[in-house]
Design a protein that fits this description.
globular, mainly alpha, 74% helix
């Protein structure tokens, strides 16, 4: 159920996120999911890879539908946006390949690792080059953040994912950090 009253600044941040902070949170979640994949037991690889793919589909969709069009109106050069769109297209091809196979396929782990590397490079470029330009622009990042959050929540619901994925990733991080090395699951395929 949605909250309607602002009890603190933290509540405001949850309800009205800045667009760049929302995208950064998604980036950290993707990094955590890829890390989790690398540490997971074989029986966990398929569902985790599917979750990664769904989360990335949602993230790329909100960027392409809302963020990039808004940003293109305030930037003087389209070069970074064109590169980002091309990187999204490449990521979508990798996602489709991953979704078409199972962990029993010898190339599965390599495909996920390749996706992780390309997403890592894309995130670095966005956060280091594009985000500073957007931050310095006249774009209303709060209004855009609200639109991104609403669209993201809708897509997550459609895909059967939950809005508490950041909490879920944090819980898994906590669980893994509490395990002794002898209890840790074997690493997935590299």
């Amino acid at each position: 159920m949605a909250r309607t009253r602002l009890d603190s600044e933290d509540d405001f941040e949850d309800i009205a996120p800045d667009a760049l902070n929302l995208l950064r949170r998604d980036h950290r979640l993707a990094e955590e999911l890829f890390d989790e994949f690398a540490r997971s037991a074989p029986q966990q690889l398929d569902p985790l890879a599917r979750r990664i793919c769904k989360m990335l589909r949602v993230h790329t969709q909100i960027e392409e539908e809302l963020f990039y069009p808004a940003v293109s109106r305030v930037l003087t050069s389209e070069t970074l946006l064109e590169e980002s769109r091309r990187e999204h297209a490449e990521a979508k091809e990798r996602i489709a390949r991953i979704e078409s196979m199972s962990s029993e396929n010898a190339a599965f782990g390599e495909e996920v690792a390749s996706l992780a590397a390309s997403i890592g490079a894309h995130v670095a470029k966005e956060e280091q080059e594009l985000f500073p330009q957007v931050s310095a622009s006249t774009l209303d990042l709060t209004a855009l953040g609200i639109a991104l959050a609403e669209r993201r929540d809708t897509l997550l619901d459609v895909l059967g994912l939950h809005g508490d994925d950041e909490e879920g990733a944090a819980n898994q991080r906590e669980t893994h950090s509490e395990r002794s090395p002898a209890e840790a699951p074997p690493a997935g395929p590299k």
